[in-house]
Amino acid sequence: MTRPISKTVNVPVADGDGERYTLKMGPQHPATHGVLRVDLELDGETIIKCSPQVGYLHRGFDKIAENRTYAQSLILTDRLDYIAAMANNVGYCVAVEKLLGISVPLRAKYIRTIVCEMSRIASHLLWLATHALDIGAMTVFLYCFREREVMLDLFEELCGARLTFSYPRIGGVRQDVTRSFIDVLQQFVAEFPVHIGEYETLIDTNRIWLKRTVGIGVLSAAEALELGLTGACLRGSGVDYDIRKHRPYDAYDLVDFEVPLSNDGDIYARYRCRMEELHQSARIIQQCIDQLPPGPIISEDAPDLVMPLQGQRKVEAGSSTYGTGLIRLLEEHGQYPVGDIYVSTEVPKGELGFYFISDGSGRPYRMHVRSPSFIHIGALPALAEGSMIADLIANIGTLDVVLGECDR
Amino acid sequence: MATTNPLQKALDKVGIEYKPTEFPNCGLHCSLVLEKEQIQPLARALAGRGFFIETVTAVDRIKEDIFECVYLFNHYDQSQRLLVRVPLPRNRAVQPSIGKIFPGAVWHERETTEMFGIRFDGCPDSRNLLLPEDADFHPLCKDFSGVS
């Protein structure tokens, strides 16, 4: 893909003779993607100081999780990044599996990789749709939602939910995939590159889109690292860091894919990275479908929610609120492992990490969620200060944040 | 022989012994317990070597009457995750801020301050972040039992 030639963008420098005023943008502003308020100090249209105010969705996950078993906390992760809940579920399950020492059957690993990449597609499509809508390219919104709908329909077929799935379980997945699911997905993956081409024709030659993305919101690799950015925001600045490659989990080490990079560090670069990621996601799904092995979909050791997985495992439903699998683990190992563990996975937004401190009681002594959106909103002042107020909208969009994940 | 491990280099520079841990078991390459005076020199040594801050948080060890301030650093290229724990007395928990070394740490420190009441000395911004601006309770402390 050749890159359009960037014209120098003259950012107007605040002249200092205008009157400074503060503007509170949000929390109901449509371009802030949820309940984000940004306090701005302005000189004319130039942002002198930008201070994001978050916490409107703070529900205290860390505290709630301390009073629940590991299996019960799974449903909380749906409410983090609700755009890509599958990826959050998988991230949580991978972390708990590592803590409890549960190994996952190969088929479940493949299925989880498929749903992770499906949620990446769904998340990136929503990002592209709203980002483009925010900065004046409206048509692409409907095109993106057309494909996103297919993903949500497939999720619904898989687990009955379209938003909060809780489909991946500690030790595997809840149900096996059906033949029709695979067929529809296969067809989707085959056609998807054509659809990506459609979005690109709509915006890649669109003068408004290029004017508002090329050379705007530039972050160097060093700045992006200092701010702790991850995901496409970091890769758009040329840093090759993708957990799927660096510390593979599930079936990522069994499939072939590339990590798209761009060295320019502007909004356009991050857009290109995410568009290439869509291609790679389709590639990963195709490989997973081709390689999908037969076998069990959940580990025998898997702790369960109170409702048992009928017919999937030998263990019968217990009467305890712990669930059968946890009782088994407790009996076999005496107690849960003690210690601390940090496990991170690559969700669509960046690096999602779970830090557990286990005291052996079956409930985390402390759980901390390292959510990418939290760090990315923290980086907003670095992007926005000194730029025009209109570019703030583009900058919020390019960071790809979800406030549910930021506030936790 | 000189090491090529960026984490070991950084630790050598500030005179801290590098003790590797079993990465596959806990997701960490090195886990250290340090004094609070050591955190700023360590952060400076890490900052120039491709490390970034993954998170800052804390744990309330109420039985031992301490807070543990927890730092996670990672290297983007070589996958070297470092966990640092700094024990602080519960009644006067003050910790030097690394917000000026890693700008990304400021929000983590703000969150830790409001959730635990640990003060970060020299943090560029110490307002409440997730809690209401007038909240004076610290919900992640183990002795917190709700607000009336």
CATH architecture of chain B: 2-Layer Sandwich
By DSSP (H or I, 4+ residues per run), the number of helices of chain B equals 4
Largest interface: A-B, 41 and 36 residues
**What's the CATH class label of chain B?**
Alpha Beta
Total domain units of chain B = 1
Mean pLDDT of chain B: 82
The tally of beta strands of chain B, per DSSP, is 6
Report the count of strand segments of chain A.
8
Biggest beta sheet attributes of chain B: 4 strands, mixed
Helicity level of chain A, as a percent range? 40-55%
First CA to last CA of chain B: what distance? 62 Å
Radius of gyration based on Cα positions of chain A:
22 Å
Mean pLDDT score of chain A: 81
Q: Which ranges of chain B are low-confidence, i.e. pLDDT below 50, for 5 or more consecutive residues?
A: none
Helix content of chain B: 10-25%
| Strand portion of chain B | 25-35%
N-to-C series of helices and strands of chain A:
EEEHHHHHEEHHHHHHHEEEHHHH
Q: Write down the overall geometry of chain A.
A: globular
- The helix/strand order of chain B is HHEHEEEEHE
Structure description:
The complex is a heterodimer of chains A (408) and B (148). With 408 residues, chain A is α+β, with helices and mostly antiparallel strands. Chain A is built from 16 helices and eight strands. Chain A has helices at 61-66, 74-78, 85-100, 106-134, 139-159, 179-203, 207-213, 221-227, 232-235, 243-246, 267-291, 324-333, 372-378, 380-384, 389-399, 403-407; strands spanning 20-25, 37-43, 46-53, 168-169, 172-173, 338-347, 350-359, 364-370. Chain A has a three-stranded antiparallel beta sheet. Chain A has a three-stranded antiparallel beta sheet with strand order 6-7-8. The longest helix of chain A has 29 residues, at 106-134. Chain A is globular. Chain A starts with 19 loop residues before the first strand and ends with a helix. Residues 305-324 of chain A have low confidence and may be disordered. By secondary structure, chain B is an alpha/beta fold. Chain B has a single domain, classed as Beta Polymerase, domain 2. Helices cover 22% and strands 26% of the residues of chain B. Chain B contains four helices and six strands; from the N terminus they run ααβαββββαβ. In chain B, the strands form two sheets. Chain B has a four-stranded mixed beta sheet. In chain B, strands 5-6 form a two-stranded parallel ribbon. The longest helix of chain B is centred in the C-terminal third of the chain and has 12 residues, at 105-116. Chain B is globular. The model of chain B has no long low-confidence stretch (mean pLDDT 82). The chains are: A alpha+beta (408), B alpha/beta (148). Chain A binds chain B through residues 54-55, 58, 60, 62-63, 95, 98, 225-229, 234, 239-241, 246-247, 339-344, 351, 353, 355, 357, 365-366, 368, 370, 374-375, 377-379, 382, 407-408, and chain B through 25-28, 31, 47, 50-55, 57, 59-60, 70, 72, 76-77, 79, 81, 83, 102-107, 115, 128-132, 139-140.
